[in-house]
Write a structure and sequence with these properties.
The complex is a heterodimer of chains A (81) and B (638).
Chain A (H helix, E strand, L loop, with lengths): L6 E2 L8 E7 L4 H9 L7 E7 L6 E5 L2 E5 L1 H4 L2 E5 L1
Antiparallel strand pairs in A: 1-6, 2-3, 2-6, 3-4, 4-5
Chain B lengths: L5 E6 L5 H9 L16 E6 L5 E6 L11 H11 L10 E7 L3 H13 L4 E6 L1 H7 L2 E2 L1 H8 L3 E3 L8 H13 L23 H22 E2 L8 H11 L1 H21 L2 H21 L4 H18 L2 H17 L1 H15 L7 H9 L1 H7 L6 H10 L9 H11 L4 E2 L3 E2 H26 L11 E3 L7 H20 L1 H14 L16 H13 L6 H9 L6 H13 L8 H11 L4 H13 L4 H11 L2 H29 L1
Parallel strand pairs in B: 1-3, 1-4, 4-5, 5-7
Antiparallel strand pairs in B: 2-3, 6-8, 9-10
Helix pairs in contact in B: 3-7, 5-7, 8-9, 9-12, 9-18, 10-11, 11-20, 11-23, 12-19, 14-15, 15-26, 16-18, 17-18, 17-24, 17-25, 18-25, 19-20, 20-23, 21-22, 22-23, 25-27, 26-27
Classes of the chains: A alpha+beta (81), B alpha/beta (638).
């Protein structure tokens, strides 16, 4: 992971678009779940909402909206899109 | 003739499999707008072209072949051929959501790789078209190398072609070795791999799927999504506005249960009282007359009275379910749920438990973590179900004045709401304690899909409410009728000896049971009559209301029959049933585990007598202690 344009999905502000660059450091179960729902390197997401105290967050990707905890989003590396 | 071939509907959660199943087989299983409505396999008959029939399976939704939660694993084991009692399907109808093709096709491409015979049903084409997305069947079929039919299960479009495709699909040969078109040429064949490899392969598959979708659909630069829906969604989900809306919504439902149901309930009560009086007047006094006028009619009637309230409750829940709002509520509540060790996903099973704990406990199958699931099962029966509603409602109507606070808020509705809140608060404490002691935290994750917000479909809501009312009435005419007859018998015999003065019920078997219980329940503020009511309601909570009215009817020497609410008010005036007793009794019903079916389903879902006994024991202890405190404190204060 290099370059200044690399941050975690958990820190992307509401309304911003980002391109996923990698998913790392999570359990294999969570990884498989994320992949099956479209969270893979190359997918574009838009953060649409943030819950009470910042978690969970909801993101728009492909034709649907997913919600995930910020602890889960912290495994997802993104670049600005 | 028994069908010999099996066809399975498989797809992501909330892509309309059950709607399609209902449309194809003429069934009316529950559908709603959130992922995880269907948690079990269901079977129906599907007529295909040449007059034959095949067996059609409706299955829980899953995002991947390898399922994680209990409901997803049903699909995994079916496709492995290891689901007990069900053969491996001969053909899969892969249901995909046309508004979200890339994601839906992930599972389809996994199934193609696994060598299944597949027909793709691109569902929700009506919704896709209103967004401006057009799916070209032939192009998609060519890209995937399987037949594709565009359908809309809701409007019925394309169903005839789908039937035809299923027929010819069954006749087709199984595919030869799959092509794995998503793997770039010369790339390594996938094998069971570590995280990095899994992520790389997932990314490759999506890259290919994006290409397939781009080639086979046309869509405008910007989707024609409604600005209104987006604003509404943001308002509902943002904590600052969403949490007040959430509280107001549930507050309104409880208000509605009292205010709207009032008129129809009074009408039904008058009808029942009239019927009882009519029977007494028309038939000669005797055993049969007493059985009908004191046992059957008030017993069943006093439960039937609650049909309007049950109907309102289910209409409200149905509207919330079908609008997609429940997932927004789960999103908002995740923070709170996480504090007690649960997850937002547990919200839907818990909310279903307000209708009945049984579907609530079944819905926990969507929770992937076993410890989260067990904790949710254990607290589900603390959510006040519709069977408690009659008990609360009759006590509230008799003891709480119908005052309007601040001119608009019904005090009765507020008391009712507080009973529900009491159950929820206790549930959170229990869950917190469980997760800190026996059910140590295993890693769990939230990641769930938010269904689109939509205007609820009146037909779906009405059908759901009708089904619930019908099953409530069926229960009233079977279980409750049987219990009423037993209670009537126990409260009528043996007849008091000659010269016995006082309440004749006291000399009966029921009176003896009540007298035996009295020392234990006296500290809770309950007399022997209430004790008999509680004992008889162990099979089902509603029986309390019918048992009490039977006991009162037999005990009162007046010829005239009167509703339970009036009988209770009379006792309050005589001083034998106080407001504090009524509150203590409601608190008892909030906590007590009086439902055989709940215990049976808990045994089935946990697979353990230990958890089942634990549920019964902790709830009974909680009910006793909470009632004891309520009565002892309450009677000193008032």
């Amino acid at each position: 992971m290099k370059g200044s344009d690399n941050h975690l999905l958990s820190s992307v502000p509401v309304g911003q678009r980002a391109r996923i660059s990698a998913v790392t450091g999570c359990s294999l179960d969570l990884l498989k779940k994320l992949i099956s729902m479209g969270i893979v390197a190359g997918s574009e997401v838009t953060v649409t909402q943030r819950g009470l105290f910042g978690s969970p967050i909801s993101v728009h990707l492909f034709g649907s909206v997913l919600s995930l905890r910020s602890s889960e989003a912290a495994h997802i590396h993104v670049q600005s899109a | 003739m028994q069908p010999t071939k099996t066809v399975a509907l498989i797809g992501n959660p909330n892509c309309g499999k059950t709607t399609l199943f209902n449309a194809l087989t003429g069934s009316r299983y529950k559908v709603a707008n959130y992922p995880g409505v269907t948690v079990e396999k269901r079977e129906g008959l599907l007529a295909i072209k040449d007059g034959g029939h095949v067996s059609l399976l409706d299955l829980p939704g899953t995002y991947a072949l390898e399922g994680m939660s209990a409901d997803e694993q049903v699909v995994t084991s079916l496709l492995r051929g290891s689901l007990a009692g069900t053969p491996k399907p001969d053909l899969i109808v892969a249901v995909v959501d046309a508004t979200n093709l890339e994601r839906s096709l992930f599972l389809v491409s996994e199934m193609i790789d696994a060598g299944f015979k597949i027909v793709v049903a691109a569902n929700m084409t009506d919704a896709a078209e209103s967004l401006g997305i057009k799916v070209h069947e032939e192009l998609l079929a060519r890209a995937l190398d399987v037949p594709v039919i565009a359908v809309s299960a809701r409007t019925g479009r394309g169903l005839a072609s789908l039937r035809e495709a299923i027929g010819s699909g069954l006749a087709r040969e199984a595919p030869r070795s799959p092509k794995r078109s998503w793997l770039p040429e010369g790339a390594h064949q996938p094998r069971e791999a570590a995280g990095e490899e899994v992520a790389r392969l997932g990314s490759l598959r999506y890259t290919w799927l994006k290409e397939v979708v781009a080639r086979s659909t046309s869509r405008p630069e910007r989707l024609r999504s409604s600005r209104f829906a987006a604003t509404l969604d943001a308002t509902l989900m943002s904590p600052a506005t969403g949490i007040p809306i959430l509280l107001a919504t549930f507050g309104l439902i409880f208000q509605a249960i009292f205010l709207w149901a009032k008129a129809p309930m009074e009408l039904i009560t008058q009808g029942i009282d009239g019927l009882s009086s009519l029977i007494t007047a028309a038939l000669p006094p005797g055993m049969l007359t007493s059985l009908l006028a004191d046992g059957v009619v008030p017993g069943v009637g006093n439960v039937v009275v609650f049909v309007p309230q049950i109907a309102i409750l289910f209409l409200c829940i149905g509207a919330l379910e079908d609008s997609g709002y429940l997932s927004r509520a789960a999103f908002l509540l995740d923070t709170v749920m996480r504090r007690v060790g649960l997850q937002g996903r547990a919200f839907i099973p818990l909310l279903s438990s307000f209708a009945c704990a049984i579907p609530g406990i079944l819905a926990t199958r969507t929770i992937p973590s076993r410890s989260d699931r067990l904790a949710t099962i254990m607290i589900a029966p603390l959510m006040s179900c519709s069977a408690r509603l009659p008990v609360y409602a009759v006590l509230i109507a008799a003891f709480v004045p119908p005052t309007l606070l601040w001119g608009a808020v019904s005090l009765q509705g507020l008391v009712l709401l507080s009973m529900y809140v009491l159950g929820m608060a206790a549930a959170f404490v229990i869950a917190w304690a469980l997760k800190r002691t026996i059910l140590r935290k295993e890693h769990s994750f939230l990641v769930m899909e938010m269904p689109p917000l939509r205007r609820p479909i009146l037909k779906v809501i009405l059908r759901g409410a009708t089904d619930s009312v019908v099953s409530f009435l069926k229960n009233a005419t079977t279980t409750i009728l049987a219990c009423s007859i037993v209670v009537w018998f126990l409260a009528s015999y043996p007849k008091p000896p000659q010269g016995f003065s006082g309440n004749p019920v006291q000399a009966s078997y029921a009176g003896m049971i009540g007298a035996a219980m009295e020392p234990a329940i006296r500290p809770l503020g309950f007399n022997w009559e209430i004790g008999v009511g509680i004992v008889s309601s162990f099979p089902a909570r509603e029986v309390f209301v019918s048992a009490l009215s039977t006991i009162y009817n037999l005990g009162d020497d007046t010829e005239e029959h009167q509703g339970l609410i009036r009988a209770l008010k009379e006792r309050q005036a005589q001083g034998s049933f106080s407001l504090v007793t009524a509150v203590s009794l409601m608190v008892f019903y909030v906590f007590a585990c009086m439902c055989m079916s709940t215990l049976a389903v808990c045994r089935r879902e946990t697979g353990s007598w230990g958890w089942t006994a634990g549920m019964f024991a902790y709830m009974t202890a909680l009910a006793y202690v909470a009632s004891l405190i309520t009565f002892q404190v309450g009677s000193r204060l008032l």
